Amino acid sequence: MSVPSKPLRHFLSLLDLSSEEAHALLQRAIALKQDWRAGRCYEPLRGRTLAMIFEKASTRTRVSFEVGMTQFGGHALFLSSRDTQLGRGESIEDSARVLSRMVDGVMIRTFAHETVERFAAHSQVPVINGLTDRFHPCQLLADMQTFLEHRGSIRGKTVAWVGDGNNMCHSYINASRLFDFQLRIATPETFEPDAEILEAAGDRCQLFRNPEAAVQGADLVVTDVWASMGQEGEQNQRAQVFAPYQVNEKLLAKADAQALFMHCLPAHRGEEVSAAVIDGPQSVVWDEAENRLHAQKALLEFLLV
Ligand code: CP
Ligand code: NVA
To answer: In CATH, which superfamily holds the domain spanning 14-136+291-304?
Structure first.
């Protein structure tokens, strides 16, 4: 049985970190990235295991956690709900009790946010949210690291979120609280983010209907798919509603001339973003994707070492 060397912490939402911890974590991610690139070997998780439960598809999240554990000298265990007893109805609570007696941390990607909360409540080891329908906090660590690397502190800057008020949007709202930036959110009617999450951020976040107004003078423009995992059946209807919200060159031209473009990926060129923008000079999506690895190594070190 694993004996935690420090008080048990989970990472289910960005708000599980204090602002100070979040800033320190980004600095650590940058340092770990430099160390890795310089060829310095650092294996603080030798002999330790991260279980990764996936109830939804993933490329970046799976690979970045698995590679991060390998680089740290540990092991990552891929568990698809299809092939485990979870898929045959074993309860979340029992799965949490059993797994956490054998592994040192658990990452979960699932549908209902309540699932990761229930798992964490019965786990003896740290639980990391690898995306739920409500939040995608690991992605925000990478996004914030990427902005910091390219433009310095995001404090006081203006970020425009264009598109669906989804899990990524919710995590941007929480990030605005931790990192103290203004967030303008442009969504079609009925696709606004959750009112409670929004209200808790106070006057840092503003809702817009018009994407051009939201993007005006922004330092960072962000979008995401119009139909998230689990919403595939709404794809056609959403494509019509969201068409005026495409981030293209005309829209990005309204932002600050130095504005960056981010997208958590996977992207649909010609839908939420034009090829000219995602493949253009203001896009930092490949750094953003790579930083999943470095930011999550910093997170693993923070939670497990
Ligand atoms: N951005 C992100 O989480 O990508 P995956 O779905 O490929 O993990
Ligand atoms: N909002 C998207 C993010 C994918 C990384 C989804 O939940 O499918």
So the answer is: Aspartate/ornithine carbamoyltransferase (3.40.50.1370)
Question: In this structure, what token pair is assigned to residue 207?
Answer: 């809702």
75 an active-site residue? no
Residue pLDDT, tens place only, 274-291: 999 999 999 999 999 999
Which residue's CA is the nearest one to ligand 2's atom 3? 228
Asked whether 224 lines ligand 2 (CB < 6 A), one says yes
138 lines ligand 2 (CB under 6 A): no
The DSSP result for 208-249, as a single string, is ES-HHHHHTT-SEEEE--SS-TT-GGGHHHHHHHHGGG-B-H
Q: Tell me: the pLDDT tens digits for 115-145? A: 999 999 999 999 999 999 999 999 999 999 9
Q: Residues 32, 294: contact at Cβ < 8 Å? A: yes
Domain 139-288 CATH class label = alpha beta
